[in-house]
Amino acid sequence: MDRFNAMRVFTRIVELGGFARAADSLQLPRASVTMLIKQLEAHLGVQLLQRTTRQISLTLDGAAYYPRCVRLLADLEETEAVFSAARHNPKGLLRVDMPAGVGRLVVIPALPQFTARYPLIELEIGLNDRPVDLIREGVDCVLRGGSPLDDSLVARPLVMMDQVTCASPDYLQRHGTPHTLDDLHGHQVVEYFSSSNGKRYGLEFVVNGQVQQVDLPKQVAVNSADGYLAACEAGYGLVQAPYYHVARQLEEGRLCEVLKGVPPPDMPMTALYPPHRQLSRRVRVFVDWLVELCAQPGNDFYRKDSAG
């Protein structure tokens, strides 16, 4: 039995929540995955996984064994990279997840720079707004806008994104164009709500260096960034979004910026990854490239008239 391979299979079963998913992820026959776990449990003399027809769960021994496996496998990967060509030309599968807008509008258009530099890295990119359980879902790194909420993850700041307040021309024709916060009486918002915790987001403005919240009525609430802007374009109210996500709509006149004198606060964009991936050469070079990308002049994270 290849113990390291068995440990890799075991950790993937835990992360993905099943034998079949782990087998598909590792591109192994399902019978081989089952056999490796049986051999590993026999070698250790303990049961690691509690199997039922509906779910897989860790035993007490399995829960103690899992974090040790994660550390050993990360150390093994890093050690091999130090003494091999992978130190300079890392290879293998890298799973990342990011908001759909960031991926579609900023990262993927620039991705040929990264893949030309690291041709042996295979990327699997998830594009969505939902929170991702990095350990359970086997994701190596995520990009997220807003303040990081999980202190157990390593956070690498990437950029402070310019935000703008927008509305559709039709909406402004019906409700008038606000120029100050006092003009917001009689206006409404498109509300964004989190599908994971139900938190609701209205409007925020920077006034005399302080963030001020403004509560307005709503008719429509959505839980995706694309749906948020679609509702705004349909005339349901004011929204606030990172500049990169509305740059094309502003240029084409489908949306109009308002309240330029009282901008929203900047939004941080952060790369997050589990502590055990900190030594991964693949993760490091990808995050370093993201930092480089975000620092490039003229990228769409900033307004075209911004000094930043």
Please explain how this structure is put together.
- The chain is of the alpha+beta class.
- The protein is 40% helix and 24% strand.
- The chain has helices at residues 3-16, 19-26, 30-44, 60-82, 100-117, 134-137, 169-175, 225-233, 243-252, 281-295, and strands spanning 49-51, 56-58, 92-98, 121-127, 141-145, 154-161, 163-167, 189-193, 200-201, 203-207, 210-214, 218-222, 239-242, 256-258, 267-273.
- 31% of the residues are buried.
User: Span from first to last CA?
Assistant: 56 Å
Q: CATH top level of the largest domain? A: Alpha Beta
Overall number of strands: 15
Rg over CA atoms, rounded to whole Å, is: 23 Å
Biggest sheet features: 5 strands, mixed
CATH architecture designation of the largest domain: 3-Layer(aba) Sandwich
Give the H and E element order: HHHEEHEHEHEEEHEEEEEHEHEEH
Classify the secondary structure makeup into a structural class: alpha+beta
Keywords: DNA-binding, Transcription, Transcription regulation
Pfam families: HTH_1, LysR_substrate
Domain HTH lysR-type: 1-59
InterPro entries: LysR-type_TF_proteobact-type, LysR_HTH_N, LysR_subst-bd, WH-like_DNA-bd_sf, WH_DNA-bd_sf
Helices, strands, pairings?
Blueprint lengths: L2 H14 L2 H8 L3 H15 L4 E3 L4 E3 L1 H23 L9 E7 L1 H18 L3 E7 L6 H4 L3 E5 L8 E8 L1 E5 L1 H7 L13 E5 L6 E2 L1 E5 L2 E5 L3 E5 L2 H9 L5 E4 H10 L3 E3 L8 E7 L7 H15 L13
Helix pairs in contact: 1-2, 1-3, 1-4, 2-3
Keywords:
308 residues, alpha+beta, Arc Repressor Mutant, subunit A, D-Maltodextrin-Binding Protein, domain 2, 3 domains, 5-stranded mixed β-sheet, 3-stranded antiparallel β-sheet, 10 helices, elongated, transcription regulation, WH_DNA-bd_sf
